[in-house]
Design brief:
The structure holds two protein chains of two kinds. Chain A is mostly helical. Chain A is 65% helix and 0% strand. Chain A has helices spanning 2-21, 25-45, 49-73, 82-85, 90-110, 125-132, 141-163. In chain A, helix 1 runs antiparallel to helix 2 (25-45) and helix 2 (25-45) packs antiparallel against helix 3 (49-73). Chain B has helices at residues 2-9, 14-34, 38-62, 70-99. Classes of the chains: A mainly alpha, B mainly alpha. Chains A and B meet through helix 1, helix 2, helix 3, helix 5 and helix 6 of A and helix 1, helix 2, helix 3 and helix 4 of B.
């Protein structure tokens, strides 16, 4: 347990720092998926293998690919110096981040959590899904949350399509000779 | 030798997971503060969301009264984070198309 925990914690923190400090944006994205994988490992250790599977599917699969798409669309020449990728608040930001992390750690360790023991979670898939659907006793809130999330995903999908829609004659569509391309953005 | 193995095999305390998650949250917050690239800021926000997820799952595994629902909340958080990434990257693409940059220091007006 301890060895696995140390490995996962080291992998997660190194990957997270790599995401923050890497000069190449693509390296940042790959470091980010590494830290997500480490979090999936933690989920397995904590008795939630279903959630680990979700984590790998949604984060390591889908979110990383979507972010890589975003990088491909917005790529610029590589930065050579750290000053070009970070703003002037780097040391103040580090101070604030250390303060936040230290404060959270101290509070979380000093707090008396009462009678805790490992292995209380829903380890099998059936209990997990019954709770997620709000069928299990005491989990009625998830009926509401599940539907709210469903509506939210629909709204987000519509919003993503509308925001990123290309309007005629805007941005990359404008050619150097000033002419507008034909038949972009619908309409004939 | 046996005692050492016993120590290695014993389950970790709750605080270990919480502290790792807190440090991960702090690293993500640092990145979200200092980076100039909007896409990297999204990545750092994702790291913060993952840290919070880890905290939720740790509590659901360790607190008897939690009844294991923390993992269910984590599923909801994952769905919301996915929606946030989709909309956020659409906004980044729209900004890039009009400004030719994703540097958040240069994007300082809402229109034009």
């Amino acid at each position: 347990m301890t060895v696995v925990f140390g490995f996962l914690a080291g992998m997660m923190l190194v990957s997270a720092l790599g995401t923050v400090l890497s000069r190449n944006v693509v390296h940042s994205a790959l470091f980010m998926s590494g830290s997500f994988l480490a979090v999936a490992g933690f989920f397995v250790m904590l008795g939630a293998p279903v959630l680990a599977a979700f984590q790998v599917l949604v984060y390591v699969g889908a979110v990383t690919v979507v972010i890589l798409f975003g990088i491909m669309f917005t790529q610029r020449p590589q930065a050579r110096r750290f000053s070009t990728i970070m703003n002037r608040q780097i040391w103040a930001g580090l101070l604030i981040a250390l303060g936040v992390g230290g404060l959270l750690s101290v509070v979380l360790v000093a707090e008396d959590w009462g009678d805790v023991a490992a292995g209380q979670g829903n380890r099998n898939v059936e209990d997990f899904s019954l709770a997620l659907l709000g069928v299990a006793p005491g989990t009625g809130i998830f009926v509401l949350l599940f539907e709210v999330v469903a509506v939210l995903l629909l709204v987000a999908m519509v919003a993503a399509i509308i925001i990123s829609r290309r309007k005629p004659g805007e941005g990359e569509d404008t050619r150097p000779d000033g002419q507008q391309p034909q038949n972009i953005g619908g309409g004939s | 030798m046996n005692a050492a193995l016993e120590t290695l095999n014993s389950p970790l305390p709750l605080e270990a997971y919480l502290v790792v998650a807190a440090v991960m949250f702090a690293v993500g917050a640092w990145g979200a503060i200092i980076r100039r690239n909007a896409v990297v800021m999204f990545m750092c926000v994702e790291i913060m969301i993952n840290a919070v997820n880890l905290t939720l799952v740790a509590f659901s595994d360790f607190l008897p009264a939690a009844n294991g629902v923390g993992a269910n909340y984590a599923v909801i958080v994952v769905a919301i984070a996915a929606a946030e990434v989709a909309v956020g990257l659409a906004i980044v693409l729209a900004v890039f198309r009009t400004r030719r940059t994703v540097n958040v220091d240069e994007v300082n007006s809402m229109k034009g």
